[in-house]
Amino acid sequence: MIINSRFFNRSELIGFIALAALLFVILPLSLDVFRLNLVAKYLTYAFVAIGLVLCWGYGGILSLGQGVFFGLGGYCMAMFLKLEASSVENTKIQSTPGIPDFMDWNQITALPFFWQPFHSLTLTILLIILVPGLFALIIGTAMFKRRVGGTYFAIITQAVAAILTILIVGQQGYTGGINGMTDLRTLKGWDIRPDHAKVILYFFEVFLLFGCILLAQFIRLTKLGRILVAMREQEDRVRFSGYSVANFKIFAFCMAAVFAAIGGAMFALNVGFMSPSFVGIVPSIEMVIYTAVGGRMSIFGAVWGAMLVNFAKTSLSESFPQLWLFGLGALFIAVVLAFPNGLSGLWADYVQPRIDRLLASRKSKMSNGADSSVAAGAPAE
Amino acid sequence: MALLPRVAFGAGPATSAVNTTGLAVTDTEVTVGILHSATGTMAISETGSIQAEKLAIEQINAMGGVLGRKIKVIQEDGASDWPTFAEKAKKLLVNDKVASIMGCWTSASRKAVLPVMEQYNGMLYYPTFYEGLEQSKNVIYTGQEATQQILAGIDWITKEKNAKSFYFIGSDYIWPRTSNKIARKHIENFLKLKVVGEEYFPLGSTQFNSVINKIKLTKPDVIFTDVVGGSNVAFYKQLKAAGIDLSKQALLTISVTEDEIDGIGGENIAGAYACMKYFQSLKNDNNEKFVAAFKKMWGDKTVIGDVTQAAYLGPWLWKATVEKAGSFDVDKVAAASPGIEFKGAPEGYVRIHENHHLWSKTRVGRAKLDGQFELVFETADLVQPDPFPKGYQ
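Predict the joint structure of the above. Result:
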C-alpha cells in the first residue's frame, strides 16, 4: 500500500488548521445560537459536498441525485425522532394515539411494519448508514457493471431523485407527504430544541465532519484514491491494467452516498425537520453547485463552498426578499465562468503562491516543490 | 409624505409597561414580521396576502399605530420552501424579536413554522382556509377551518340542485383529503346521500381526462373539487373541452378564488359555484372601501380573493388584541384574543373564538365570465369554528 509519507502536505495542513480554528473556535465564539444553528445547517451540506469530491472530483462520476441519499439519511433520523415525539401522551388528541400525527390525518390506525425498527436508536444509526449505502450499491451495480457512465449516469441519478420525491409525496400516510416530518422534539428524552442543545449538536456535527474529512483524505491518499483519479483520466487504461473499474466506481458512489446520508441525519437533528424538498432534483443539483463553487478537487474547498453558498443564500434572501434568487444565480454563473476550479482553485492559483513565496524567502532551506498538492495541481478537464 | 396628516408616535404608555419580554418595541415603534413566499411556485398566491397585510399596516399607522407606536415591518421570504419558512420564522423571533408575524399560506409551511412559534413563543396570524385538526396558543387562524367552509355550502347546493350524488376530486395532500373526509361524513351520515367517486391527483398534475370520463359515466349531481394551484387551469379547460357545461352540471369548489380565476380564465369556469367566506364583489361599505384602497395601493388590475381578505384581518385583529391586553407580550395577547371583534372587516363582522379561529359567515358565489363571483347564498349567522369536529373524524 502506497501512502504518502505525510498525511497532509503543507497547504492542506494550513487549510485543515484554518477550518478547525473557524469551526471550533471562531464561529462558536462570535455567533449567537441562532446563527450557529444556521451554520450547523449549512455544514450538513458539507458532508454531501465531501462525498461529491470523492465521487465526482476524484472518481469523475457526476451524480445529480445526492439528495436521494441526503433524504434517506434524514428520513431515517426523522422517523426515529418522530416516533419519540408521538408518544401516547403527546398524541392523545388523535383518533389513534401513539402514532405520528400525519398517519392519523390519513386514517392509518396502526404503525406500519417498516417504522418498527425506528423505535431503537442503535438500529436507526445502523439504518442511516445501511439504507443509503445499500441503495447506492444497487444503483451503482446496476449501472457501472453495465458500463453506464457519464451523462447517462447523471440523468439516471436525477430520475431516481424525481421518483423518490414522488414516492414520498404520494405515500403521505407513511411519510408525511409534502408537509414532511415536522415537530421533532427529543432524542432519547433529551430535548433537541433549546439553545444549549443546539450548541452541543453543533459541536457533535463538527466532530463528525472532521471525521469524514480525515476519512476522505485517507481514501484519497491510498492507492485506491490514485486509481480513482486514473479512472477519471483514462478509464480504459485502468481497465486494461486489470482493475475492475466498476467496483471502484461503485465504492466511490457508495462512500458519497453514506457521507450524504450522515449529512441528512445531522440535518434532521439540527433543524428538527425533514421534508421531500431536500430529496428532489433541485436540491440535488444545488449540492453539486456547492461542490463546484468550493472546487470539486478539494475536500476543504467543498466544505467552504457549502458554507459560503448557503450563507449567501440566507443573507441575500434577508436583504432582498424579492430579488435574491437572481443574485444567487448570477453568483453561480460568475463562479463557473471565471473560476472553473472553484474557490480552492482560486486559492491555489493566486493566494497559495504568494504564501509560498513569503515562506520561501524566510526559510529558503525548505523545499516545497516535491509535494505539490493534488488540489493545486489537478488538471482541468 | 408631507401632505399626509402627521401622526405623532410616542404618546402611548411606557415601553417598560407594555413590553416585559424583550420584544422589539421602542417608545415610538413596534416591529412586526411578514413571512410569505415572494419567490417560487407559491408566490403567485401569497403576493396578495403580503399586499393586504402591508395595506392594513399602512392604514393602522395612518391612524396612530398600536398603543401609540408605529408598526415597522420586517419582511422575509419563505421561498415556497417549508424549511425556509421555519428558518425565517426563527430568525424573526430570535434575532428581530418581532411582536407578531403575519404569515404562512400552505398547510405545509404552517406545520413547519408551528413548532418554532411554540418554542420561541411567537404570535402567528395565519390567513388561509385550512383543514382544521389544529389549535395553538401561538396562532390566530383568520381563515376558515374545513367544517366552517364546507358544511353550509354542501347543505345549500343539496337543496338548490336537489342533489343525490357527489363526486370528489382533489389534489393529493392533507387539506383536500381532510376536507373531503369531512364532506363525505356529512353527506353520508347526516344528509344520507351518496358519494359516487373520490379521486386525488398529485400537486401540479395537469391530466384530468381519466376522471372527467368517469364523471361522464357516473353523472353525479354535484362535482365537489379541491384541486389547488396551477392544476386548476388544466382541470377546468379539460372539463370544458370534454363538453361538460357548468351551467347545467353543478360544480362546487372550495379552492378557486378570484386569484385562481385570473389563471383559469372566466370563460372556462363561469357557472361554477365556490364556497368560502369572502368574495371581492361583496356589497357592503367596509368591502367597498377595502377594495378601493387595495386597488389604489397595488394597481387597478389586482384581484382580491378569500385569503387576501383574511390576511388583511391579521394586523387589525392583532392591533385590537394588543390594545385590549394593554401589552405586546405574547402571553397576554394570546390570552386576550378570545372575544376580540373587528367590525371593519371587509367580509363583515368577525370575532375570535376561544379556539383562536374566527367566527365567520359561509358564502356561496357563482363564477361569472369577468372572473368575479356573484353572491348566491350566505349563512344568516356567523358559523362557529370547530377545528376538531366530533363525528367527522
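Chain B touches chain A through 36 residues (CB under 8 Å).
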